[in-house]
Amino acid sequence: MALSIRIIPCLDVTDGRVVKGVNFTDLVDAGDPVEMASLYNAEGADELTFLDISASSSDRETTLDVVRKTAEQVFIPLTVGGGIRTVEDVNRLLRAGADKVSINTSAIARPELIAEIADRFGSQVLVISIDARRARTESGFEVTTHGGRQSAGLDALAWVEKACALGAGEILLNSMDADGTRAGYDIGMITAVRAISKVPLIASGGAGSLEDFAAALDAGADALLAASVFHFGVHRISDVKKYLSGQGYSIRTNVTV
Amino acid sequence: MIAILDYGSGNLRSAQRAFERSGVEVVVTSDRDVALNAAGLVVPGVGAFAACMRGLINVGGDEIVRARVAGQRPTLGICVGMQIFFRDGDEHTNGELHKGVGVWQESVSKMKAPILPHMGWNTVSVTGNSNLFSGLTDQSFYFVHSYAAKAPVGIAQAWTTHGEKFLSAVEDGAICATQFHPEKSGDAGLALIKNWVAML
Hints:
heterodimer, A: alpha/beta, TIM Barrel, eight-stranded parallel beta barrel, 12 strands, globular, B: alpha/beta, Rossmann fold, eight-stranded mixed β-sheet, four-stranded mixed β-sheet, about 35% strand
């Protein structure tokens, strides 16, 4: 047997609730984070990701509480992203029970943050989240900020290389063109990033059909992250894993022992 | 009572909750007497080998582990907590080795694999008579690491392959260790923890 592919539901959290928008607008309430984490754990999720989309610092305190409660009840790895700007922010989240943190905009603004976090806690806690889209840059892909609305002025592949050199433990690649469309992952983008990185790669954005998940794995993704298809019951995690297992991928069977 | 040794290695509250699921009292402590006298001692560990070893020495943890080994008191190392039970490790050095506690006279070295860290769920293959994996066939456990021991030590072993075959668990009398995180391995991890608690 080999390392299993991972299916990771992503829960966008604000003010203690889970929300998910299509292309990051039109947010719809999809439930209570701790309940959803337990449910996804029971369904065979291999990890969980919370993305804190809070606008205010008081909401961020609520998120720490959500992390704390979840980590005490659900015994699978938990990644938390959103609003992390300093090593101290990372420390607070890890102390609340997060296993990994993902950083995005703050690493673009100050790349040394990657090395600071990796030096203090190890690369294994650090996921670099990249919101990328097709553009006329050297590689054909650019990094965006503000939920895909603005160009960061960075070539996506150049940024992947730099982030890995600074100590990224994992890359979360989110296609802003595909996000929320359910029209499939951006396979070209996954292939291009896989070719230049030696850390685990999580593909995100665009999951719709079962075949979409398989295509992203064929392109070199180690893990697949999705939100709306799981939250709104388009697919159940157990069905995705059953399908992938049938296609010959190594999956973790969630046998109750 | 089980003690989880707190030497500055991350959040231990979810680990505490996972061990409590076995129905035993669990304390997170850096107190020498509590750690020495607990029915079972858990030595966790995340981050780099040398940093973990420094933290361990700061609370006298190296002496606590050696004393428990000498007295054959149940002790469980997890992840880097397993690695520092070995003689030495070469993490983040140019050939220079960091000293471990030295329960086992073998080394920990970087894994040879195309993608590192080895991150995610993988299966184990058990050799020898294992109590830890009793009733746990074909289960996956959660790994996050780039370094590992590759030589057999102890009485029973578990092996996992990522790029190359490495030691994913050891049982050596009262001393056990897992390279994976049982406290993050869902139901299979909780069952393994229960097996360990049953051995105390």
